[in-house]
C-alpha cells in the first residue's frame, strides 16, 4: 500500500508510462474475466458475500437501464393525447376527486340491465340455524328456552323499536350491529365507506333476511348518494346493491363489492 | 332587410313620443273591455326601456292584460309612423311594474304585489318579432368521436355545426341529413375550443398544446396553422364583422399567461399581451374595438386592438375569473346574419347590416360586460367607458363558483351557470337578481340562449339538458338522453336546433 501520493507525484514529475492508456484499457477489459474467475473460485463466507455484491450490482444495472428506457418511452408517449379529456373550464379542477366519481359508461349500463343477480360470490357456505341462533335460557328457574341470541353481524334499521325485553324473542347484540360498510367499486378499484340502507337478501333464508343478518354473500343495499352517480334520466342514484365478501362476525367490519 | 333592421332600433321608436296621443286612441282600446266588467280604472304612465315616457299618463281599466297593453303601445308608437315595415304584425312587448313582470291582469298584479294605484309606472320592453320553439326531443344522436366532446358550435349562418373532441379531431356535421360531413385531423391534443368567424367562412380551433388551426367549413381542409402559444388555448374570439369584413383578425387566450392577436391572411402573430400573472381563462373582442381578457390572477384587462396596449385593469374579483360575456355577444357572434341565416350579398352591405344589428343590440347605451368568478360572484362592468374601472353592480347569490355567464340576445337578461346546481337569471341593465332555476342535481356547466331571448337551455354534469322559460320562470322541458356529463351546449342562431356533447362521446341534436 502506498503511504503517500508518490504515484501522482511521479506522474507529475516524469509523466505517465508511454503505454499507460493501453494498459488501463486492457486491464479494464480483462476485469470481467478476473472477477468471474474469482466469483467461481471463492468459497465460504467470502464467496457468499461476493455473490451478493455481484447480484446487487446486477440489479442496480437493470434498474438504471429500465429508467433510461422509460424516459425514452415517455418522450414517445408524450405525443399521444391523454385519456379523459375535459373542457377548458375543467382544466386544473377536480382532478383529485375524479377517480371517486363513478361514470356511468355504456358498458356499465349494459351490465346493469343484463343480470343484477350475477353476483361476485355465487356460492356461499350454508350456515346452520344452530350456528346463528344461540339458545338463551330464561325464566326464574332458567327453564324456558325460547329466547334466541343472534351470533352473526346484523343491521338494525333506524326506525327499529324494541319490544318489551321480556317478550323479545330474538336478541341482536349491539356489539355486532353495523351501520357502515366498506364498498369497493369493481371497475374503478376504489373503496368507499358507505352507509347501509338495508339487507336485500341473505342466501341462508328469508328469516335471516328479515332479521337483518349479514353473513358472507349477503346482498345489502348501500347509500351511494355521495358518489354523485346519476341515471341517464338525470336523477341521483341513491341506493345500490353490494355483496358482502368477508365474514363480518370474525373481522369486525363489513367489506362488500358493488354490483354494477 | 336593412329597413327591417332599422325598424328595430329604439331610436326610431322614440320618435312618436313627441306627438300627443289623443285620448280617443286609448278609449278605442279601453271601452270594449271596460263595458263588460265592473269599471275600475288605474292611471298608468307608460315608459320605454330607456326611461322616456310614452305620452301623458293614461286612464286604463284594471282588467288590462299584457296583450291589451301591447295593442295600446303598438297603437301609440305607430301613430305618425307610416312605414309599417312588419306587414301589420304588432310588435310583442313585455311589461314591468317596479321590475316585476306583469303576467296576469293589472288587478291581479296589484293584488299580488300591493302597488299603489296612483302614478303606476309601467315599463315596456320590446321582444323579438319571431319566436323560437322550445326544443323537446332528440332528433339525432351522432356518434363518431372516440373521446369526450369538449366544444360544440353552430356557425353564424346556422348551416354548419362543428364539434371539437378529446380524440384530437374536429367534426363538421351536415344539419340536413344529421350525419357527419367532414372529419378534420391535424391537432396533436384535445381540441378545447372551436370558434366560427362572423362571416361563417373560417373555423378556428385551439388545442391543449397551444396550436391554433384554421379550417375551411365547406370542404373540411386545413387552411392554416397559427403557432406560438406554449400551453392550452382556452378561448378564441374573432374581430366583429362590423369592424372588418371579411374577418381577418382573431385573439386567442392561453394557459401560458398570454394572449395573442393573429392575422388570418398572413398567418402571423401581430402582437401578444403578457400582463396576466396566471393562466388566461377567456378573451372577448368587443364591438368597440377593445379586447377584454380575464385570468386566474383575478384581474380583467382591457386592451387596445391596434398595438396591444393595456387600456385599463378591472379589479374586484377575489378568485379566478372564469368567464365573461358581452351584452352584444349574440349580435357580434352572428355578424351580418339575421335570425333566418340570411345575409346581404356584398361585403359592404353585409358590414352595414352587421353594424345595424350591433347598434340595435346596444340600444343607444354603452356596451356592458359581465364576469363570473370562482369567488361565487359576478360583476357588471362598462369597460369601454372612461370610468370603466368602477363596476355597475356586484351580483351575489350563487353558493358555488360561476362557470359560465351569458347575456340574452336582446341584452336584457343575464343567465349564469354555477356549480351550485342552479341557473340564475339577472337583470342585464342593473344586475339585479330576478330568479333562480332549480332542477339540476349536479353542477351546471353551460347555458345557451335562444335567439328570441325567451328560453334558456342549460347543460349539466347530471347528464341532462333543461330548457327554462323566461315568461313563467319555470322549467319548460327536461331533455335526458346523454349517458354522461354534458360538456357543451349551443343553441343555433336560427333557433331550429340545440346541439350538445359530452363525456359519452356522442353529439345530440335536439329539436322542437
TrEMBL record, chain A:
Q: Which UniProt keywords apply?
A: Nucleus, Ribonucleoprotein, Ribosome biogenesis, rRNA processing
Official protein name in the record: Ribosome biogenesis protein NSA2 homolog
A GO CC term assigned to this protein in UniProt: preribosome
The keyword Transport is assigned to this record: no
Positions of the UniProt region annotated as Disordered = 66-90
Compositional bias of type Basic and acidic residues: which residue ranges? Answer: 69-83
Task: Report the sequence similarity comment from the record.
Answer: Belongs to the eukaryotic ribosomal protein eS8 family. Ribosome biogenesis protein NSA2 subfamily.
Question: What is the recorded function of this protein according to its Swiss-Prot or TrEMBL entry?
Answer: Involved in the biogenesis of the 60S ribosomal subunit. May play a part in the quality control of pre-60S particles.
Highest taxon above the source species: Eukaryota
Cellular localization per UniProt? Nucleus, Nucleolus
Location (main, coarse)? nucleus
Recorded hits in InterPro entries, A to Z, give: NSA2_fam, Ribosomal_Se8/biogenesis_NSA2
Coiled-coil annotation: which residues?
none
**What GO biological process, any one, is recorded here?**
ribosomal large subunit biogenesis
UniProtKB/TrEMBL annotation, chain B:
Q: Does the keyword 4Fe-4S apply?
A: no
Q: Where in the cell is it found?
A: Nucleus, Nucleolus
WD repeat coordinates: 142-183, 184-216, 226-272, 273-313, 395-436, 437-478, 479-512
Task: Output the SMART domains linked to this UniProt entry.
Answer: WD40
The answer on whether this UniProt entry bears the keyword Nucleus reads: yes
GO CC annotation: nucleolus
List keywords of the entry alphabetically: Nucleus, Repeat, WD repeat
Specify one Pfam family.
NLE
- Compositionally biased, Basic and acidic residues: which spans? 16-41
Q: Which GO terms describe its biological process?
A: ribosomal large subunit assembly
Q: The NLE domain covers which part of the protein?
A: 52-110
Q: Where is this region: Disordered?
A: 1-62
Q: What is this protein called?
A: Notchless protein
Q: Which organism is it from?
A: Chloropicon roscoffensis
Q: What is the lineage of its organism?
A: Eukaryota, Viridiplantae, Chlorophyta, Chloropicophyceae, Chloropicales
